[in-house]
Amino acid sequence: MIRSEYQHHNKTKGYSTPSKLRYRIERIWRRVWLRKLILWVLILIFFATSLTSGLLIFKNEFNFRGFKSTMEAFAFERPELSIIDLNIKGANPDLSNQIKAILQLSFPINPLKININYLQELINDVESVDFSKIRITKNGILEVVIRERIPVALHRDGKQLMLLDIDGRRIGEVFSRLDRQDLPLVVGQGANYRVKESLEIYKLASPIINRVRGMILVGERRWDIVLDGNLKIKLPEKGAKKAFSAFLESGEVMKILRQDFSAVDLRNRGKVIVRTKTTVIREEKI
């Protein structure tokens, strides 16, 4: 009886027992950061809805492309932000003019409308360009730095005269041997792949360089040095530089070269064989 009365007096009257879900929601809502997050989300939704509604209402009077162009012009076509000129470094005047003609740029230019990688590919495709680097300077200059290939030899292939660099890569073309008499001439299939070797032989020929007209690669195996008067010095396939150097150091070299011979054959080790012009049937000319 006493327990019953105690329980009766301790019962809460007028309040329903809260559920677990309601209790959890009330606990979460007490977190300040959550209330602030919800407030900011509601504000953003309000502004986004207002902006979208305004654009839809005035869509007939609002040109989106014009707006985009206007913003780009405002941001990038101002003088202090535009690219105003092109500066090419490391190239000769002819190559600089060639690069300008290929790029076809009209200044001032919006920086967003320039694809640096594409421009670099165009420049690197030029035969006489070995390497290029492009950057935009603080002064609004499009700077192109060029590493130019240097021609070191002429290669005659049929009727074509091609300029070659030290690695045998084609740089350009000339119309006549007279255009580049300062460069050694190599003839024959595969001669462009042996430019370094031919230059080493040319260097050895310095005592008689005034008489040298060019070199012919025979059968893609060995060299013939052609002198004026169509005199040929036939070098062996192996040890060509050693054999040629030994011939030049011999006391008979000038005497032999003064004679009316068609060829000096150095292909037999330790021997110098000369041929008269009457024994020649057909030889490739330079």
> Which value, in Å, is the CA radius of gyration?
42 Å
Shape-level CATH architecture of the largest domain: 3-Layer(aba) Sandwich
Count of DSSP helices? 9
Overall strand count:
12
Classification by helices and strands: alpha/beta
How much is the average pLDDT?
Answer: 83
State the domain count.
3
Spatial gap, N to C terminus: 136 Å
Describe, in plain words, how this protein is organized in 3D:
With 286 residues, this protein is an alpha/beta fold. It folds into 3 domains: 19-50; 85-148, membrane protein fhac (Ubiquitin-like (UB roll), Roll), CATH 3.10.20.310; 153-279, Rossmann fold, CATH 3.40.50.11690. The protein contains 9 helices and 12 strands. It has helices spanning 2-9, 20-29, 32-57, 64-76, 93-103, 116-124, 195-204, 240-249, 253-258, and strands at residues 85-89, 129-136, 141-148, 153-157, 160-164, 170-174, 185-187, 212-218, 222-227, 232-234, 261-265, 273-276. The strands form 2 sheets. It has a 9-stranded mixed β-sheet. A 3-stranded mixed β-sheet has the order 1-3-2, with helices on one face. The longest helix is centred in the first third of the chain and has 26 residues, at 32-57. The radius of gyration is 42 Å and the shape is elongated. The model is unreliable at 1-9 and 280-285 (pLDDT under 50).
